[in-house]
Amino acid sequence: MGVRLAAAVAVLTCLSALPRAAQAQWHERTDAIMGTRIFVEVWDTDTAHGEASIDAVLAEMRRIDNLMSHYKPESELSRINARAALEPVQVDRELFDLIKLSTHYSQITQGAFDITYASVGYLYNYPNHVKPTEAQIKAALPAVNWRNLQFDEARHTVRFEHAGMRIDLGGIGKGYAVDRGIELLKGRGIQHAVVTAGGDSRILGDHLGRPWLVAIRHPDDEKKIVTRIPLSDAAMSTSGDYERFFDENGVRYHHIIDPHTGHSASRVRSATIIAPTATQTDGMSKTAFVLGPEKALEIINRMPEYDAVFVAPDGRVLYSNGLRPPAPRPAGVDAPQGAPK
Ligand code: ADP
Ligand code: MG
Predict the structure, then answer these.
(1) Which domains does the chain have, with CATH numbers?
(2) Using a 6 Å CB cutoff, which residues line ligand 1?
């Protein structure tokens, strides 16, 4: 888990003073789906409706997992990986759209985000401390290139234009599932909620008049907090090199792979992205690992919907322009007349 959600204690104290007639309260559930921790919390006056809404979000996540998991041999995604180098494979529209959308993130991240990373990524097994040899990486790397994904809009088929290609939506599927969960809750009339899948969260509304405070943990100590970000009606994803990894001879092998080298990408320790939707934040949260924090900030600062917090290997914390406090005025420069102090 990259983030921790904390409600201001003061808010909770105020709630107990609300008229009892409303009986609104938070309902929450934790589950394990998509190989990660799912957390759903909704504010509802009707307990049965609140609980049923949580059930609906979890069912939706299971549906998405069955469609998109590369761990499940019977999933539609596995079917694509098995056949798309041989012939165009007709794909469920929703999955087609998400694969296509993934190439949009490849475009805006200069290839740092690339679902075809899996052509080499599948050679790693973090729980079992398995990594590919240099020769294996060299042999697999030519298959990593999102430009070799060929789409046919009319027939919604996907084809791999290179032998040995594989795709894996692990870098965007959870964000997408979180967004689907939030849309579902909105459709059921819920106005305040949190949906989290691993490092990807989205907040609907606020915490009854105040923003949620979302903590970004220290990469080496989950009890230490680097900073807290106030959030309402927004999504946030944190990627970290401490999520799925093993260390060997002083090198950390972790689950974010540089598509250009086939090695773990280590230019930051953690990257947090904030934007309106979790698909956006998930799609962008790998960028700084591959391109480095400065280059990633350049990209983020050009896109007004996005903000970012990066923790560099030397411990520096870098913020995008939207999160930085205003620069202090240079000495000798007075505030314009009438400006607020
Ligand atoms: P989480 O799975 O907790 O949401 P991240 O959002 O950080 O974690 O995504 C990491 C996952 O993204 C990896 O486990 C892998 O499935 C996928 N991935 C790794 N490297 C890349 C890459 N360069 N481009 C796209 N996806 C990647
Ligand atoms: Mg993610």
Answers:
(1) 76-167 (1.10.3980.10), 206-324 (3.10.520.10)
(2) 36, 113-115, 117, 121, 168, 170-171, 174, 198-200, 237, 239, 243-244, 255-257, 259, 282, 285-286
Q: How many CA atoms lie within 13 A of 159 on its CB side?
A: 9
| Mutate-to-test residue for ligand 1 from 286, 289, 310, 311, highest number of ligand atoms within 8 A of CB | 286
Which stretch of DSSP H or E encloses residue 49? helix 47-68
The dihedral built from the CA positions of residue 309, 312, 317 and 322, taken in this order, carries a sign that is: negative
SS3 191: coil
How far is the centre of ligand 1, averaged over its atoms, from the C-alpha of 121 (Å)? 10
Pocket probe mutation, ligand 1, options 117, 141, 256, 272, max atoms within 8 Å of Cβ: 256
- Ligand 1 atom at minimum distance from 175 CA: 4
Q: What is the pLDDT at residue 2?
A: 41
Task: Give the nearest ligand 1 atom to 172 CA.
Answer: 6
Q: Which residue has the tokens 């490849």?
A: 106
- In contact, 279 and 182? CB cutoff 8 Å: no
Q: What is the pLDDT of residue 92?
A: 95
Mean pLDDT rounded to a whole number for the chain:
92
pLDDT over threshold 80, residue 209: yes
Give residue 337's pLDDT.
45
Token representation of residue 191: 């106005």
Ligand 1 center–CA 60 separation, angstroms: 21
pLDDT, one tens digit per residue, over 111-121 is 999 999 999 99
Give the model confidence (pLDDT) of 27-53 as tens digits: 999 999 999 999 999 999 999 999 999
At 146, is the pLDDT very low, low, confident or very high (cuts 50, 70, 90)?
A: very high
Alpha carbon distances (Å) from 275 to 110, 162, 166, 250, 307: 19, 34, 29, 35, 7
Query: Would you state the pLDDT for residue 334?
Result: 55
Pair of tokens at residue 270: 């953690």
Name the amino acid, one letter, at 335. Answer: A
Q: Which residues contact 313 (CB under 8 A, 6 or more apart)?
A: 266, 267, 268, 269
